[in-house]
Amino acid sequence: MPYLYQELTNYSVQKDLESKFLLDFEQNQNIVHKVCRIYTNNQEAHNDLFQEVVIQLWKNYSKFRGDSKFSTWMYRVALNTAISLYRKSTRTVKTQDIDGFTYKIKSDDYDNTEEEQLKALYKAIHRLTDIDKALIFLYLEDKPYKEISETLGITEVNARVKMNRAKDKLKKILNP
Amino acid sequence: MDLDKLKDSWKKQEVEQTSISKEDIYKMTHSKSSSIVKWIFIIGVAEFVFWILLNFIVSRLEMMEVYNELNLMKFLDIVYYINLFVVVAFLYYFYKNYSSISTIDTTKNLMNNIIKTRRTVKYYVNYNVLGSLLLMIIFNIKIINTPNGIETMLALDNTTLDSSNLLTAYVIGQAIGIVIMLLLLFGFYYLLYGRLLRKLKKNHKELDNIEHLS
Q: Strand B13-14 to strand A104-105: parallel, antiparallel, or no bridges (unpaired)?
């Protein structure tokens, strides 16, 4: 029964791919959470965007050849989904919603000021444009300019100029 | 607040409290996308189907007998085949542009491809609206120039209006019809695509402007 054999093989290949994806994703899901946090302002929208990113990642996973790190690939898909594919507008920032999130700092000596700073940072990022958000996010994640320019599809020189402007805008919001 | 210091806090942040289990991620991979790309595809296909059906229905109407009497059938046949060719060409480009949309592309290319796909449908709709308008004008000129053309068109056996009043009423009626049709279409597209693509267009413009920075 070659047909049945083929079907079973396809099924098991699919299952392997699925479990590999779930493992890869679970280890890197923080990236997606952070993207959702900067592009949405309430839990419901956060979950919606998160789900859309998962769908997009899974849809393209078979094309992921491993020539770059899975996380690099995730940054691109997550940002693309937030900037171009996600429908709900997040222009109006509701402060009470942002305050609803809890920002925890990983530290042995617990420091409240760092958490407050993180909250202020998220609040300030929320006031930037979608493109500036992406630039600041990639800066905070320590991504090299080469990767930033390749993700957004702009030249490295222009990425630097635009990044400096985005940082200036952020500083002005943080220190009015 | 210093950005480099904030970067340290950023790196130390914990987001695990919102961590989602493998089971839930698995469920998400099997759920349906609600992205604008999907909507552009659905609406695009719906528009093609709408105009194809409309053309089909119009060609089956009893009005065709009137066109026969006015000797317009040969002209309509030619229009029909040209239209068929144009629809196939548009469908090909729509499919080609749609399949080039990929989330793993750079942000700029992704946006370009989404806008290009949408533009194909926009051109198709414009082609239909302008084509219909042109056909209506050609028909009306032919009808007005044919003796008793308006009476045949409106299936009037006996009318109290004299021919110049009938002509004025007919032209005004047709003009109002065209204006209403155009307003409805404009309102429909403004609502539909204006809302759907507003955010994307704004981001696309910003990304485009970066090219002129240095």
A: antiparallel
Residue A97: inside a domain, yes or no? no
Q: Mutating which of B8, B11, B16, B28 best tests the A interface, going by the most A Cβ atoms within 10 A?
A: B28
Q: Are B29 and A54 within 8 A, CB to CB?
A: yes
State whether A35 and A68 are in the same domain: yes
| DSSP per-residue string spanning A30-95 | HHHHHHHHHH-SSHHHHHHHHHHHHHHHHHHGGG--SSS-HHHHHHHHHHHIIIII--S---S--H
Tokens (6 digits) for B10: 């950023």
Which helix H or strand E contains B14, and what residues bound it? strand B13-14
Which residue of chain B is at minimal alpha-carbon distance from A112?
B9
In sequence order, the 6+-apart residues with CB closer than 8 A to the CB of B213 are A158, A161, A162
Are A135 and A148 a contacting pair, CB within 8 Å? yes
Task: Say if B203 is an interface residue toward chain A (CB within 8 Å).
Answer: yes
Alpha carbons A55 and B29: distance in angstroms, whole number: 5
- How would you write the pLDDT of chain A (176 residues) with one tens digit per residue? 567 777 777 778 778 888 888 988 888 889 999 999 999 988 888 889 999 999 999 998 888 776 678 888 899 999 999 999 887 644 444 444 555 566 666 655 556 777 888 889 999 999 999 999 999 999 999 999 999 999 999 999 999 999 999 999 999 999 88
pTM of this structure: 0.81
Token pair in block for residue B55: 């053309």
ipTM of this model? 0.80
Count of other CB atoms within 10 angstroms of residue A163: 18
Our count of domains for chain A comes to 2
From chain A, pick out residues whose CB is under 8 angstroms from the CB of B198.
Answer: 89
Q: Are A116 and A48 found together in one domain? A: no
Which two tokens mark B184?
Answer: 């409805």
A169 — contact with chain B (CB < 8 Å)? no
Q: Which domain holds residue A118?
A: 102-176
Query: What residues in A contact B17, CB-CB < 8 Å?
Result: 102, 104
Distance CA A88, CA B199 (A): 9
A80 & A12 share domain:
yes
Cβ atoms of residues A124 and A174 within 8 Å: yes
Is the domain of A84 the same as that of A7?
yes
